[in-house]
Specification:
alpha+beta, five-stranded mixed beta barrel, three-stranded antiparallel β-sheet, 19 strands, 23% helix
Length: 456
């Protein structure tokens, strides 16, 4: 459910009906995991929503993405809708499926979108190779460098990344606005998440005299190890809008000239966005993107605004109001698919450094990444923001639900990952959830059949 629409005509800060009806976050059941709705979140007794997105992985991912057992009826992401989430963010970690993970703390504890399995935050995930791998803006390149240090040392760089996101006050999580596919990650205990993130805007300076936001945007993205699809999102008129802040107290903004920067995928023809103001709501940044099926385009932007009136962010660390919410212990994160793969590679390095180098080299050689970005010219940026016009009902009705396209490149990478891991371990993998999964995962015939299918 949602009380307000975002600038794309979709939900702004959606939440579960149970929160409104009984002031409770789901799941309603008490006791031990899995709850009845976790193995099948789309069951009639679990949701009344329609047009939800079913996304389940292929072999070999499906083997280790099942919830508790290989016969579970659901083994991946339960996706609902493209939505905007606002709140305060910090860094969580980099997973073996190459996803960058941030945490978003919702601003309203009574309409949060959380589940009892989430704790205080909604997960934000996006593939590094689809986004920040070739980032050019200083914030994103610095984040990328810190994540590399975290990967090499196996020590969290959350404090260092927090200082990058909010250099003026590193102890406080910065304000953010996120557009992406809202749903549940049921391989990690059916926690609410936005995955893939399509647009990510972080307020790096809250000063109204130089209010700075750093964004990236796209209209496509994959969903991690427990997904087989590339999600293609057809926004109305191919325009993706990010409402930075939903607050009627803001107003009277201009762009500060000469300091704004933008980069985009070469050949995508993405121009500098329209920066406007939605009367009674807040500032909106609107990008016109090419069709998601054509170019898989990506853009990043740094903008500087000067405001006559601009409410300061209400972010704290930890966020006020969510700490007291009841929570039930979620399944052990150490038993997730991504964590199993991470530990398997780590154990490989501990017992056979040469095999680890061979595995890493083979995967690096097979990895494909997005092309380098090009700088976008910025013209006529010295102007008062025009008024934002909300979408008409007919325009909103043309906005299709995410199109699910099996991503052969992603599947090929995932199959190669298991092939090389099985090779390094000589087809005798470490146990997974107390079980020897080697026979199921290292089935060379099935792995090669899937690989040949992906390569066609």
């Amino acid at each position: 459910m949602w009380d307000k629409e975002d600038a794309n005509g979709g939900p702004l800060d959606p939440y579960w009906g149970l929160e409104k009806i009984q002031n409770e976050i789901p799941p309603r059941e008490q006791g031990q995991h899995p709850y009845p709705c976790e193995p099948d979140p789309y069951a009639k007794q679990c949701t009344e929503n329609k047009n939800i997105v079913k996304d389940a992985p292929l072999f070999p991912n499906s083997v280790i993405c099942k919830i508790g057992n290989l016969t579970a009826p659901f083994d991946g992401h339960a996706d609902w809708i493209v939505a905007t989430q606002q709140g305060c963010v910090d860094w969580e970690g980099h997973t073996p499926d190459d996803d960058y993970n941030f945490r978003l703390f919702p601003p309203n504890p009574n309409r949060s979108g959380l589940t009892k399995n989430n704790g205080q935050f909604i997960g934000l995930e996006f593939d590094f190779a689809e986004t920040l791998v070739n980032a050019d803006l200083p914030l994103w390149t610095a984040v990328r460098e810190q994540v590399g240090l975290e990967d090499n040392s196996q020590q969290s760089r959350q404090a260092e990344i927090g200082a990058l996101l909010n250099s003026g006050n590193p102890a406080v999580n910065p304000r953010a606005a996120v557009v992406g596919i809202f749903g549940l990650d049921c391989e990690h205990g059916c926690k609410s998440e936005v995955h893939p993130v399509l647009a990510f805007a972080v307020e790096t300076n809250p000063d109204p005299n130089d209010n700075t936001w750093v964004l990236f945007v796209r209209n496509w993205g994959t969903g991690g190890y427990c997904s087989r699809y590339r999600h293609l999102v057809n926004f109305p008129n191919n325009q993706l809008s990010v409402m930075l802040v939903d607050d009627p107290g803001s107003g009277g903004a201009t762009l500060i000239p000469g300091v704004n920067k933008m980069f985009a995928t070469p050949g995508s023809n993405i121009a500098f966005p329209t920066v406007s103001y939605w009367p009674g709501r807040g500032p909106v940044v609107t990008f016109t993107l090419p069709s998601p099926e054509q170019t898989l385009a990506y853009a990043e932007l740094e903008i500087h605004l000067r405001w006559n009136n601009f409410p300061p962010p209400a972010c704290t660390a930890p966020p006020v109001g969510l700490i007291k919410r009841a929570a039930v212990a979620a399944p052990n994160e150490a038993e997730s698919a991504e964590e199993y793969l991470r530990q398997a590679v780590q154990q490989l390095g501990e017992r056979d450094a040469a095999a680890k180098r061979s595995f890493s080299g083979a995967m690096a050689a097979k990895k494909t990444t997005a092309p380098a970005l090009v700088q976008v010219p910025i013209a006529a940026e010295e102007r008062v923001q025009p008024s934002f016009t909300p979408l008409t009902a007919s325009a909103k009705s043309t906005a299709a639900a995410p199109v699910l396209t099996a991503d052969k490149a992603k599947s090929e990478h995932d199959v190669n990952y298991i092939l090389e891991l099985c090779k390094a371990y000589q087809n005798k993998l470490p146990p997974y959830r107390g079980q020897d999964m080697s026979a199921q995962l290292c089935d060379q015939k099935k792995l090669n059949q899937q690989l040949q299918k992906d390569q066609k």
